[in-house]
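Chapter review: from sequence to fold.
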Amino acid sequence: MSKGRKRKARVPGLVILVVLLLIAFEFLGLLAVTKLLPVHLLFAGGLVLLTGVLIIGLLTGDARKKALFAIGSLLAVLMLIVLVVGNLYILKTYNTLTRISGVSTKTSQIGIYVRADDPAQVIEDTRGYIFGTLSDLDKENTEGAVKQINETLGSSIEVKAQAGVMELVDSLMNKECGVIILNHAYLPVLEEMEGYENISEEIREIELLAVDTVIEDKKDSTSDVPKKEDPDNIIRLYISGIDTRGSAIINTRSDVNIIATINTDTRQVLLVSTPRDYFVPLSISNGVPDKLTHAGIYGVDVSMDTLGMLYDIPLDKYFRVNFAGFIKIIDALGGIDVNSDYDFSTGGYTFTKGSNHVDGSAALAFARERYAFAEGDRQRGKNQMEVIRAVMKKALSPELLSSYTSVLSAVEGCFETNFSYDKIAELVRDQLADGGSWNIVSYSVDGTGDSRKPYSMSAYAYVMIPDQTTVDRAKELMKQVEDGEVINLGQ
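The token string follows.
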């Protein structure tokens, strides 16, 4: 009888031990699959976890020893909760990073517009209409939209091409055509032109088509740059803030254009800001200059290629966030601390010279304002880099742990990158293994205001003519970071 009772007394502890071992091994296996932990931390964590399971097994090994069994059972429940919650955290991290990384396509929203007083409500109502299109600008997206319309109507539409955006809209208003196909991102460009300020009230959108195209995977952003492999410790990254409030990541004007040059050995980050109105040839414009911000209309790859041409560097990796995501991420971080060079007010917010703690909406106002400064867009570029610096500082601090799941939720849908998951996991492992702070410095290129006719517009507009001296200085700083030199710009 005593042996039978002894065996029965061991059964509860054995069940607890088996359950904990299964969940612990599943937890460690999931950690290994994500590749987010350095091997030594994974091994150390596994050792601690299995030691804890063993101790619980010893405490619950004999149910007759009620005090020890109660303590072991309580520890088992606590460990079970930790493992279950840990599994949820890891799965959410893995799924989020998987969804936002490795993006290989770009999406343009192509609008189908009629005059505001036209009776057509949907594409099917435009049967027999002449469709106005752009002849050369945004040709790939226009062709994609025409293909979709032909499939919807079941026949080929009649098109009449125009050379420019203004000419296309004029052809609609003058009734040379009944409907036009126009990239939605051109509307804010039109509204900046004299005589077209109210165009959104004069035309009506009856459909918004999504046209997806593949972003070519290439090592270099321009054929002028010799093909070469970057060292493993050098990361060159384009950071783009796109001009949209919706949740979608689409091709549209890029208001934030920052190149981050990162040396993971020296733990140094150089942020170089290029003003949105910089008047430079786009990679697709055959040498015709345009505002840099307009490059985003044609895709993030065109923005990267254009900046690659400007700075003579290969640039093919990007992080892109829209303004809605910008607000959500900063709020999830619990706000950030930004340093302002001036006292100023904008959008209902007041900033003082020096440090300011801001939430997402205030940070967006801080980053977008330019009219309050004598230096205009130059100061806005500086403020944008200050926000990026503050976000990076907060994200690399232990404070991130307290808002981890909120940050992950904020990132989804508002943020994307063509970095592979494996590369992101490698960076996380390196940070966890080495820890420590980063030296983050910033520099802005400059220029002179002028009025010119950009590639994407049919009229003169304000542009900034590049100051080549500042462009050359930016190139020098990038090279210094790549060579491992520690730079200090007095910021």
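Two observations follow directly from the output. Confidence is low (pLDDT under 50) at residues 220-227. The first helix runs from residue 2 to 34.
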